[in-house]
Amino acid sequence: MSSNPSQITFTLRVPTALQQAAKTYAKQEHISLNSLIVRLLERELAQKGTPQ
Q: What pLDDT digit, counting tens, does each position of 6-24 carry?
């Protein structure tokens, strides 16, 4: 459970190959897998004009 009330924890199921590619990319960028996923979600939602 998250200790920050402005954050939640949830389970995300992805294909193994996608997880491995994301882990590799996150490592190259020197960020955590969680940070990468948050960035990608924020970027996609911003492009769609969806408020965060």
A: 899 999 999 999 999 999 9
Taking Cα atoms as reference points, which of 36, 40, 8, 7 lies closest to residue 20?
36
CB atoms within 10 A of CB 38: 13
Instruction: Residue 8: name the closest of 32, 44, 34, 30 by CA.
Output: 34
Q: How far is CA 39 from CA 1, 13, 20, 32, in A?
A: 21, 18, 17, 11
- pTM equals 0.77
Please report where in the chains the tokens 């996150």 appear, as a residue.
26
> CA-to-CA distance for 37 and 14, rounded, in angstroms?
12
Cite the DSSP H helix spans in the chain: 16-29, 33-47
